[in-house]
Sequence to fold (149 residues):
Amino acid sequence: MSNARNPAAILYDASGNPLSVYTGTNLVAGQPGVIIVGTDGTKTYYVKTDSQGRLDVLSSTTNAVRSVVNSATTDQTLFNVDTTAKMRLIYNDSNSVLYVGLGSTPTTLTDFTYPVAAATLWIVPEGFEGEVHGIWSLVNGQARLTVLS
Fold:
Protein backbone atom coordinates (compact mmCIF):
# COMPACT_ATOMS: atom_id res chain seq x y z
CA MET A 1 0.00 0.00 0.00
CA SER A 2 1.24 3.49 -0.83
CA ASN A 3 1.34 6.21 1.79
CA ALA A 4 3.37 9.28 2.70
CA ARG A 5 5.97 7.10 4.36
CA ASN A 6 6.17 4.34 1.75
CA PRO A 7 5.60 5.51 -1.82
CA ALA A 8 4.74 2.78 -4.27
CA ALA A 9 4.94 2.71 -8.04
CA ILE A 10 1.36 1.76 -8.86
CA LEU A 11 1.01 4.05 -11.86
CA TYR A 12 3.18 4.30 -14.93
CA ASP A 13 3.52 6.98 -17.61
CA ALA A 14 3.20 6.33 -21.35
CA SER A 15 6.88 5.32 -21.52
CA GLY A 16 6.55 2.79 -18.70
CA ASN A 17 8.29 4.94 -16.08
CA PRO A 18 6.90 4.49 -12.55
CA LEU A 19 5.15 7.43 -10.88
CA SER A 20 5.48 7.86 -7.11
CA VAL A 21 2.15 8.06 -5.32
CA TYR A 22 1.81 9.50 -1.80
CA THR A 23 -1.38 9.55 0.26
CA GLY A 24 -2.16 10.72 3.74
CA THR A 25 -3.40 13.60 5.83
CA ASN A 26 -0.08 15.45 6.21
CA LEU A 27 0.35 16.36 2.57
CA VAL A 28 -1.22 19.78 2.21
CA ALA A 29 -1.66 21.64 5.49
CA GLY A 30 -3.20 18.60 7.13
CA GLN A 31 -5.83 17.99 4.47
CA PRO A 32 -6.42 14.41 3.31
CA GLY A 33 -5.21 13.91 -0.20
CA VAL A 34 -3.09 12.28 -2.84
CA ILE A 35 -0.07 13.57 -4.71
CA ILE A 36 1.36 11.87 -7.78
CA VAL A 37 4.85 12.85 -8.91
CA GLY A 38 6.55 11.62 -12.05
CA THR A 39 9.40 12.63 -14.32
CA ASP A 40 10.40 11.99 -17.91
CA GLY A 41 14.01 12.88 -17.15
CA THR A 42 13.64 16.52 -18.16
CA LYS A 43 10.41 17.67 -16.50
CA THR A 44 8.71 16.79 -13.24
CA TYR A 45 4.94 16.44 -13.41
CA TYR A 46 2.64 16.54 -10.42
CA VAL A 47 -1.07 16.07 -9.79
CA LYS A 48 -2.83 16.36 -6.45
CA THR A 49 -6.29 16.30 -4.97
CA ASP A 50 -7.73 19.46 -3.45
CA SER A 51 -9.27 19.65 0.03
CA GLN A 52 -12.60 18.36 -1.35
CA GLY A 53 -10.93 15.39 -3.08
CA ARG A 54 -11.23 16.85 -6.60
CA LEU A 55 -8.35 16.32 -9.00
CA ASP A 56 -6.15 19.42 -9.28
CA VAL A 57 -3.80 19.08 -12.24
CA LEU A 58 -0.78 21.31 -11.82
CA SER A 59 1.44 22.42 -14.65
CA SER A 60 4.69 20.65 -15.28
CA THR A 61 8.02 22.04 -14.22
CA THR A 62 11.53 21.68 -15.56
CA ASN A 63 13.30 22.63 -12.36
CA ALA A 64 13.48 20.79 -9.04
CA VAL A 65 16.05 21.99 -6.52
CA ARG A 66 16.76 19.75 -3.53
CA SER A 67 18.51 20.66 -0.30
CA VAL A 68 18.91 19.34 3.24
CA VAL A 69 18.65 21.11 6.60
CA ASN A 70 20.00 19.20 9.59
CA SER A 71 17.71 18.88 12.58
CA ALA A 72 18.17 21.30 15.47
CA THR A 73 16.35 22.30 18.63
CA THR A 74 16.67 25.96 17.61
CA ASP A 75 14.82 27.72 14.81
CA GLN A 76 16.09 26.84 11.32
CA THR A 77 15.18 28.53 8.03
CA LEU A 78 13.86 25.83 5.70
CA PHE A 79 12.83 28.08 2.80
CA ASN A 80 13.44 31.76 2.08
CA VAL A 81 10.84 33.93 0.35
CA ASP A 82 10.21 32.48 -3.12
CA THR A 83 7.80 34.08 -5.59
CA THR A 84 8.64 31.64 -8.41
CA ALA A 85 8.05 28.29 -6.70
CA LYS A 86 5.14 26.21 -7.95
CA MET A 87 5.42 23.83 -5.02
CA ARG A 88 7.65 23.44 -1.95
CA LEU A 89 7.92 20.05 -0.26
CA ILE A 90 9.35 19.05 3.12
CA TYR A 91 10.16 15.44 3.99
CA ASN A 92 10.92 14.99 7.69
CA ASP A 93 13.71 12.40 7.46
CA SER A 94 13.94 12.10 11.22
CA ASN A 95 12.62 10.06 14.13
CA SER A 96 11.29 13.19 15.86
CA VAL A 97 8.55 15.72 15.11
CA LEU A 98 9.45 18.71 12.94
CA TYR A 99 7.44 21.79 13.89
CA VAL A 100 7.01 23.97 10.79
CA GLY A 101 6.20 27.67 10.97
CA LEU A 102 5.07 29.83 8.06
CA GLY A 103 6.30 33.42 8.01
CA SER A 104 9.36 35.26 9.24
CA THR A 105 8.69 34.75 12.95
CA PRO A 106 11.02 32.15 14.48
CA THR A 107 9.34 28.79 15.13
CA THR A 108 9.28 27.26 18.61
CA LEU A 109 7.82 24.07 20.04
CA THR A 110 4.81 26.10 21.21
CA ASP A 111 4.50 28.61 18.33
CA PHE A 112 4.28 26.81 14.99
CA THR A 113 1.96 26.29 12.02
CA TYR A 114 1.99 22.50 11.64
CA PRO A 115 3.71 19.52 13.33
CA VAL A 116 5.18 17.16 10.73
CA ALA A 117 5.50 13.61 12.06
CA ALA A 118 8.67 11.59 11.59
CA ALA A 119 9.16 10.13 8.10
CA THR A 120 6.34 12.25 6.66
CA LEU A 121 6.00 14.43 3.57
CA TRP A 122 4.39 17.87 4.00
CA ILE A 123 3.65 20.38 1.26
CA VAL A 124 3.77 24.11 1.93
CA PRO A 125 0.27 25.47 1.24
CA GLU A 126 -0.21 26.49 -2.37
CA GLY A 127 0.18 30.22 -2.91
CA PHE A 128 2.31 30.84 0.20
CA GLU A 129 5.52 32.57 -0.96
CA GLY A 130 7.01 33.59 2.40
CA GLU A 131 9.68 32.16 4.65
CA VAL A 132 9.26 28.71 6.18
CA HIS A 133 10.99 27.82 9.44
CA GLY A 134 11.33 24.63 11.44
CA ILE A 135 12.45 23.22 14.75
CA TRP A 136 12.66 19.59 15.89
CA SER A 137 11.62 18.17 19.24
CA LEU A 138 14.94 16.23 19.30
CA VAL A 139 18.13 16.48 17.21
CA ASN A 140 17.83 13.50 14.90
CA GLY A 141 18.02 13.44 11.09
CA GLN A 142 17.15 16.24 8.71
CA ALA A 143 14.53 17.88 6.51
CA ARG A 144 14.80 16.99 2.83
CA LEU A 145 13.52 19.99 0.91
CA THR A 146 12.44 20.26 -2.73
CA VAL A 147 11.38 23.39 -4.60
CA LEU A 148 9.59 22.90 -7.92
CA SER A 149 9.69 25.98 -10.12
